[in-house]
Amino acid sequence: MSVGSSGAAADAGAELRSAVRTAGDSTFLEVPARVGFAASGLIQVLLGGLAIQLGASRVGEPDQTGALEEVSKLPGGFVVLWVAAIGLFALALWLLTEAVLVRAGSAADRWLRRLEHLSKAAAYAVLGVTALAFADGHQSHASTTTSHVSGSILSSPGGQVLLGVLGIVTGAVGVYFVVKGIRLRFRRDIAVPSGWAGRGITALGAVGYVAKGIVVGLAGAAFIVAAVRAQPATATGLAGGLSTLEQFPFGGAIIVAVGFGLIASGVYNIARAWLARF
Fold it and tell me: Tell me: the pLDDT tens digits for 79-88?
């Protein structure tokens, strides 16, 4: 490659990063992205409540579908769902721009942050699609959809390997969430207020990230088991991750504790709607 070609490629890369940075810094994207944080927080609060219900009485649908169904029952719920979907899509787009622009830290840290941004962008996009389906009156069970997607992956060439890799990546994201919560790394994502408010937000974030990491990690383990056994029904997403805890000693109490952790994560995300760094 000639020097001129190398320079042109570098210039093109710089222009692309500049365009992405402009999109990421745009108020047009920032405002709906903040709505997305709030919508995600509301869904996590409801998900935590459903998890507590599951742990206490062994009933309930502890997944995003169950949480969105609860939203649809609220007065004007379909409006909330439409606004939530727009915010979730904007949040997914903002996370994609952040994944492109990650530059600080070591190479390993940069790739971990890219993986976090990309996985969360995909999750928010899927959640946005699901919210739209509920707003339009078309409901689909998250666990069933996950199983169908897993079945499609398994039926493709090298499907077991692909599903296993998906499980490993999902599990790694779960572990990353736990570490992020324990080491309080989430504080670089927000403008932490001073005084008791800052301490409260930090506590909510720490508990929330650990709880969310546990559930995501268990969901990743379910994908790996489904790949090894070639049984797509084993992959049931967050619902499967929470239900797995039922098999543990004092499983009901553990699920209740995780449910409160998910509520903490939801409240943190609602606060992040105002405090997020863009």
Answer: 778 888 888 8
